[in-house]
């Protein structure tokens, strides 16, 4: 039975100081959420990030290692030591780096601290794509056709599975991530070579040769559902996002809600996600990613962390997802029922990257001039300022431009204005490319699939 607030008092894991184990815009975003909740913050940084603005505004800060992420932001021992030295009671992992590392979550809890995220067991299950698919099928979440078990070794047995699914199929590494460790097989004569190559890649890159196979969907959209859960069996979904605008499996623009999907179609999928969360004892925030084709949803994976694109959902639902995540980690009872959640209007997010707008090669250097857009319905999440040095060591995301308006068309117009009002000099950015994309007619009509952006880019060359 879900608990009420009176019953929760005993189960809370209160903390008053949060160490933010990340950098860049998300470190600034989490710090803001902590402050609003009356919590103290600890910033950590690498040598390259000593001048970051969130370092100056934290209650404590520690430089934990050299610029290379492997020796700083991925150094679990250094982060745990920093927490001990500063008296932090909890660690927020942000996204990327150690955010989906079950061993890190476990080490934090074993050190008597709170990991602001789900349990290590939930992270481990969802990090193993076969285990995740099995859990989702058991919970009634619709999945891509194909078995929820690892491929056998015998060639004939593999051929039978492919025939049962029907070509084209996709072979995926169970431990894969970041768009790596998968191969599309169009015809039977390509099957065994594809399996051998993917298995080898999986063994080397992910430390496990386990593969699985499913139907390859040819023109899907990427639709995802944001969930929010407490530790007492309460869970809600905060609406859906469309993240189909991708280049090399990297999201470029996200929006909420997904255009052209009727509430009665998405509703049962959202409720199945909520049900799955209860079934696996999920805590905190998470995202169920689906492919959507011909009116049907197919689960592909669950992200057990805060996502880059969470602000589009914040603007349409009015829920501060980061604060809600922190409160869930403290053992608070969720103060939202599903009926309280009414998503209104439309929001877009553009990822502003320090990269060449034509070649997409990363661009490092000093920001010599910065003008950010202002006005109603415009939000900018960033850590950069004039004089800021963009480091070549990390991801090229330097800002997120987020807009909200009553309709999709108005939100698009607002994003055009916001992009026109953004000036970043000293480094190259993808802003010219985003401005052109927001003039595109097919994008304006909505419902473009995950291949659309790559085709659009080819046509412009
Ligand atoms: P990762 O963990 O590496 O991000 P995902 O399982 O989320 O892997 O898949 C990444 C991308 O690969 C998807 O967004 C989609 O573009 C493509 N993809 C994955 N599974 C399928 C499938 N069954 N059919 C078509 N495309 C797929």
TrEMBL record:
EC number: 6.3.4.14
Keyword ATP-binding tagged: yes
GO biological process: fatty acid biosynthetic process
Alphabetized UniProt keyword annotations: ATP-binding, Biotin, Fatty acid biosynthesis, Fatty acid metabolism, Ligase, Lipid biosynthesis, Lipid metabolism, Magnesium, Metal-binding, Nucleotide-binding, Plasmid
Highest rank taxon of the organism: Bacteria
SMART domains in the record: Biotin_carb_C
Pathway: Lipid metabolism; malonyl-CoA biosynthesis; malonyl-CoA from acetyl-CoA: step 1/1
Catalytic activity: N(6)-biotinyl-L-lysyl-[protein] + hydrogencarbonate + ATP = N(6)-carboxybiotinyl-L-lysyl-[protein] + ADP + phosphate + H(+)
InterPro entries to which the protein is assigned, alphabetical: ACC_Biotin_Carboxylase (IPR051602), Acetyl_CoA_COase_biotin_COase (IPR004549), ATP-grasp (IPR011761), ATP_grasp_subdomain_1 (IPR013815), BC-like_N (IPR005481), Biotin_carboxylation_dom (IPR011764), Biotin_COase_C (IPR005482), CPAse_ATP-bd (IPR005479)
GO MF: ATP binding; biotin carboxylase activity; metal ion binding
Biotin carboxylation domain segment(s): 14-458
Limits of the ATP-grasp domain: 133-330
Entry keyword Translocase: no
Enzyme kind, highest EC tier: ligase
Quaternary structure annotation from Swiss-Prot or TrEMBL: Acetyl-CoA carboxylase is a heterohexamer of biotin carboxyl carrier protein, biotin carboxylase and the two subunits of carboxyl transferase in a 2:2 complex.
Function per UniProt: This protein is a component of the acetyl coenzyme A carboxylase complex; first, biotin carboxylase catalyzes the carboxylation of the carrier protein and then the transcarboxylase transfers the carboxyl group to form malonyl-CoA.
Name used for this protein in its record: Biotin carboxylase
Native organism taxonomy: Bacteria, Pseudomonadati, Pseudomonadota, Alphaproteobacteria, Hyphomicrobiales
